[in-house]
Amino acid sequence: MNTVRSPHHRSFFSPGACRRAVAALALSLAPGTGAATPATVIAIDLNQPGKAISADLFGIFFEDINYAADGGLYAELIQNRSFEYQATEQSTWNSLTMWELVTRGDGKGAFIAEAADPVHPDNPHYAVLHVSQPGAGVGLMNAGFDGIAIKAGERYDVSLFAKQLYVGARWGAVPATPEIKPGALLVRLESQTGENLGEALVNWPATDWTRLTATITANRTDEAARFVVLSTIKGGLALDVISLFPQKTFRGRGNGLRADLAQVLADMKPRFIRFPGGCVAHGNGLGNMYRWKDTIGPIEQRKEQANLWHHHQTVGLGYFEYFQFCEDIGAKPLPVVPAGVCCQNSGQTNGAGQRGLPLEQMPDYIQEVLDLIEYANGPATSTWGAKRAAAGHTEPFHLEYLGVGNEDHITPVFQKRFQMIHDAVKAKHPEITVIGTVGPSPAGPDFEAGWKIADEQNVAMVDEHYYEKPEWFLNNLHRYDGYDRAKSKIYLGEYAAHDDGRKMTLRSALAEAAYMTHLERNGDLVRLASYAPLLARIGHTQWNPDLVYFTNTEIFPTINYQVQRLFGVNSGDTWLTAMVSDPAQAADFAVSSVRDSRTGDLILKLVNAGAAAKPLHIEIDGARELPAHAVTTVLAGDDPMAVNDFANPQTVLPQTASIAVGPSFDYEAPAHSLTVIRIQHR
């Protein structure tokens, strides 16, 4: 809560506004006025210039946790398309997991995993299908991620790599030659009972790896279809990178994103996107660190790897796709690279812990980081800019921010490598804001040690993280008021309020909303902030709470998502002092007032986390040509423990209306509510 007790706030408050605020308060307390509760007075002085705050303040953080990428935002419909699943991800997995042999009619055959002659060394495994008796067809079937959701009339692009191994009997077979052209392969979508939902033919492959393509039009909607590739030729066939994509990806991008899920993120109007982690960035051991060069280029040449969260990364959603998505939705990219160390929680079964790259390898690793900046910003004539251009983007991606490290244990091993990377980037690219890390908590040894490094090395910005109860957020609405503005700026990279059982309640959402008003008030210091984690696939969730839950066909934004969206859509770049005189001195009431210079609009955010409605009297001093009405959006509910879940996804939703406004007006903030009042003011 902002109160008149703060000298910082009082210095912005004009005497005229003070007199009107006191008069309004006296009126609200006068006998016979009918006011059941004394009004809280909010006075905003537009005669003062306000305080410039970050225009990039509210963004999002995407990490491939909870099947957020493969099986989520990445639109690929086939699971384990490249036969690279392994037991280090889940104990029952192997290269052939998610694939089944299909025999039609009296067909007979078998399939195995091979690695002798792969499509690419970084994609080492593939399947070999042996057809001993063709019958009506022998092939492979994949049910995707909990089924493949298709819609009638929509088109789906199939691609696969294949090569002919032999024709005829398995032993003593005729070796395949270019002259032998036995026929075609059938690719098909079908129901779980085998009903044809759409099919196409692809050319029979050559004796070398060949990329084959086709398009299937779905003849019926099915939420749990499966994909089948069938051969009717006796012989052996190698298959790899079997892919199925809807043509309707977000913005129609090839190798693109799931359109509805990407739109839900775009609707938040994030100013930046942090990626690819999180813990995924520094990985489970040095060999599992996220190396950006492994994630670009043709998908068959990308180096897939185990995910620290015990699923799989095809890295089909790689650095190019991240950058492209940022550009598509008007968000700045904020990549995070490992600080030359792996996660301190690596090797939990043997206690391996944090390890650092050998110092003799650090020059090459530092060059890898510098190459990333060139890939993002370099001209198309540069080495790495040319690779970006070859992917279809000749212009730079305008990278401004680079995170180095994530929640790392602040050890001498970390400090040495972080300093080497930090100094190299600043020397070659002073235009890049390097973001350091101060551990996973709002206090403690790593927090203190991380800040010590930031002070000693003059790090431009540091990344703070915390996951706490709603009470913590409400009790820390002045956390950043006293931070030294001469030191590093703040990126609040991961935060969430959660109730008991890690539930995402209205109460937790309002605690976050109140805290976000405090972030706006300190927007000169806190330059960036993003909730975490972002996405979670229902039935495959490793972490709660998350902002958006989804299945193949449905999306369930939480109440907390609605808060993030309202702040993102209604952000500003100038903070205006809102003097608050609250008779109740409520600890669960918070206010923020900002101006959006692009529109001139005055945006007032009011958080009433209390159990009673709150009468307000609002004074706007120095306003010119205020409209008679303003748009108000209210997120409120009767039960603070209400949730938007899978059974009741619309329990609490924002409601928009028009209210009368002017230089002086009254408003009653409902109990358990966030209100956004947007007033046009040119």
Summarize the structure.
By secondary structure, the chain is of the alpha+beta class.
Short descriptors:
single chain; 682 residues; alpha+beta; Immunoglobulin-like; TIM Barrel; Jelly Rolls; 3 domains; 8-stranded parallel β-sheet; 7-stranded antiparallel β-sheet; 19% helix
What does this structure look like?
It is a single chain. The protein has 682 residues and is α+β, with helices and mostly antiparallel strands. Helices cover 19% and strands 30% of the residues. The strands form 7 sheets. Strands 3-16-19-20-21-22-23-24 form an 8-stranded parallel beta sheet. The protein has a 7-stranded antiparallel beta sheet with strand order 2-28-30-31-36-33-34, with helices on one face. Helix 11 packs parallel to helix 12 (559-569). The two termini are 28 Å apart. Mean pLDDT is 92; it is low at 1-35.
How many E-type strands? 36
The CATH homologous superfamily of the largest domain is called Glycosidases
Query: Biggest sheet: strands side by side, in what order?
Result: 3-16-19-20-21-22-23-24
How is the biggest beta sheet arranged? Answer: 8 strands, parallel
CATH topology of the largest domain: TIM Barrel
Q: What is the CATH class name of the largest domain?
A: Alpha Beta
What percent strand?
A: 25-35%
Question: From the 3D coordinates, which CATH architecture of the largest domain would you assign?
Answer: Alpha-Beta Barrel
Mean pLDDT: 92
| pLDDT < 50 stretches | 1-35
Count of individual domains: 3
Global morphology = globular
Report how far the terminal alpha carbons are from each other.
28 Å
Number of helices: 12
Query: Structural class, judged by helices and strands?
Result: alpha+beta
| Cα radius of gyration in angstroms | 29 Å
